[in-house]
Write a structure and sequence with these properties.
heterodimer, A: 481 residues, mainly alpha, 19 helices, 1% strand, B: 190 residues, Four Helix Bundle (Hemerythrin (Met), subunit A), 7 helices, globular
Chain lengths: 481, 190
Amino acid sequence: MIQTAVATWTVLGHILPELLLIGIGVLLIGCDLFIPRQRQVLPWLMVIGCITALIMVLGARPVTAFGGMFLVDGYAMVFKTICLGAVILTALSSEPFWQVFGARQGEYYSLLLFSLVGMLLMASAGDLMVLYLGLELMALPVYALVGMHKRDQRTSEAAVKYFLMGAFASALLLFGMSFLYGLTGTTEIGRIAELIVSMQLDANPALLAALGLLLAGLCFKVAVAPFHFWTPDVYEGAPTLVTAFMSVGPKAAGFAIFGRVLLYGLPQLQNHWGPILAVLALLTMAVGNITALCQHSLKRMLAYSSIAHAGYALLGLLAGTDEGMAATVAYLVIYLFMNFGAFAVLMLLAAPGQSREALDACKGLASRHPAIAALMLVFLFSLTGIPPTGGFIGKFYLLRAAFIAGYPLTVVGAVLFSAISAFFYLRVVRLMYMSDADDPVTLTCSPAMGAVLCVCLAGTLGLGLFPGFLLNWIVAALAGN
Amino acid sequence: MFSQLFFGYCALMIIVSGLLAISLRNPVHCVLMVLVLFFHMAGLYLTLNAEFLVAVQIIVYAGAILVLYLFVLFLVNLREELHLTAFVPNAWLGRIIAVGLAVGLIATIPAFTLGEKGVWTVKAIAEATHTKALGQEMYTDCLLPFEIAGLILLVALIGGLVLARRDEGGGECGASDDPEPHGDHKEVCR
């Protein structure tokens, strides 16, 4: 009779942040059911829970729990911080957004929290099983969130599309994982890397097929071309707040498993996946930036821009080193602030009954609301990559990482497409500052939304002016494991 | 020899019924094809000496989940098909890509080598009995994935509820809110 290691209660200490968030998620459903009058408490409860979890994550000591399935290391910490930040910003802007949008559902907050737990598990996954289950736990609530607002035909279609594509991508990922398991006999990511060396599998065609399937699945999840087709429709169809959340949180978590599988599980295959990713990154930037040029909807334009940014973020992975990964993580942090900021302004533009997602909606914004226009200006400059904003610094690190990795052509392409992207970002600026409004609108900015915009502005500008702090922290965290 | 033949039969049936399940027009026929698929999946488990999984596959998937699917089909009363615009405009392009992918994957099979063996050999499992081995593994080494799977079920429940529920009291918006009759009629999504 084979004896297995018995799980003890002490092991729960390592997953305390996740347990706390699950508890709050369940509590929120109860609160919504039993004290419906105090509904405005829900987002604050959630924000407090997330901040507590953030403190726990930042203060956690590196440890390997559940027999290597759950890793609490620097790598997990930085990604968890990004995901928690994304959810905190989403929670803060929830109440003003749903007030304008009209639909109000109590389950919204708990779904968001469960999705967050999935993201945290993805960041910490040391085993393919936990990685996949975390991915599903992250994705399922998002499918529901996308389809939550049923009055709009587009949302239902977006939800169905996202669900089908997500399931397809999961299937590809699982297929690749099953190959890996068959070849090595283990699902533990670190052990797979060891076994590939000891069994000399690195030139095995079956392993390369596994790599291809894994890459396809992962590229689907982070919307890298040519697996990006679902993104524009889903991002456009989903409620703006959910789009904002999807474009920062799940994307960062997707990059977390991307890096974990490639850097920690398949480092020996770097000479195979490096060039593939370089081509995919170039293709993604081309598709994202060039298609964004001819969009008439601001929301759809931002959707394509988020595809392009996934392409930039891939550049850091090419080298397969911690320094390169640090550039990607730094970019994801900056991207969190600037992209959420841009979406927050888009949310402000919306009024009851009108979504105002067209480019024309921001015509003459500067004359009526100079502060909001100036904020949008900063976010768009940052998305373009103009100094002194964070976007410039982030792109600079990424290009440097790709250059050191030995992909000068990709770097040239990235700079070129970055220049192209200036056209459509700055077109919005031109409309805001140099056109007259068609119909004058007054926007109301609630305190919570103001706080979100302030945080995004501080992040975008602060990280642009003092970039060393962020990169040093990330490099130290990644090296510390 | 027999087990290889049996495996080949099951694999072939799985592929055929899977293809039929996605290409037949009548949704009830599709579900029945999935039923055939599940039974042959159970057959595959049998070749792996996993008798407990066979029982679970038939009882849970074929017995419970498919019946649920049939109920859903009868309730939603699908009169017209849902059409999504295809991402790849030409169907033949998609088929060529799919066949190419399949050929590529099959070509890698000869290079496949088995990884290291785990501790649970057929003999060890027979000694400990299936359910005991499974339970022991699930509640010790695989505790975390097991619990996450439980959480996923909870999320699926909440998500299904959110999607199936009608918008109520959304009148604050007042845009194009046509009044829905509040009857017993339930809308089932997914």
